[in-house]
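task queued by scheduler; priority normal; single chain, no ligands, no partner chains; default sampling; output format set to structure tokens
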Amino acid sequence: MRLQLIRNATLRLNYAGQTILIDPSLAEKHSQASLAGKSPNPTVALPMPADEVTRGIDLVLVSHLHADHIDLKPPRIPTGLPVLGQPNDTDALRGAGFTTVTGLEGGYEWKGIQIIRTGGEHGTGPVGQAMGQVSGFVLRAPGEPTVYIAGDTIWNDEVQMVLEIHQPAVIVTNSGGGQIQGTVILMDTRETLAVAAAAPEATIIAVHLEAYDHMMVTRQDLRNAVRQAGLESRVLIPDDGEVIDLT
């Protein structure tokens, strides 16, 4: 498998001979409103042209419809691409112009790849409720490592259960420690290290860092903590545009 971080949570995944685009948010720098009163968003530009991001894509996975995960007004990816998303998001995706949308209830077989939707908790209390339902994905295919894309979630029992049931070899965490109204809505440094401790054989790839102004964890923060924990070989923190090859 080959994983490329585009920006924030947007990923290109080459897996079992297919190219999958995950959470495609391709908005131009500073084209969206601030979330923390610090800067318009996204705070950084894409590392490559948008048409290069979408070139050769076979399938799109959408974990939820927040603007830092997909562009709907207008869409910035070809609307004829097949899209898998949450069942309660399908109407909005079709309304935005996507023509081949499937609501993923549980498991789904596609071109030799098993795709399983997982849950998450996008914060706690009233903020968590307002953030709405979110999903992650587990991917399996012959000859490939099992991959768990956790999505926008904090560390909780549901994430731990996914690790226990699916035993992923690769785990992608959204680790920016984002906060809304003082409530943490994504994994932070401590929770990312908790994932590494709970899955001691897995490679962790930490993304969703430094692209939106409500992120509280920097790459350097996380790298320092990973170094202190002696986990540099297992917890990878790619820069925007960086490619990671794993077998």
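post-processing summary
- The longest strand covers residues 2-7.
- The radius of gyration is 17 Å.
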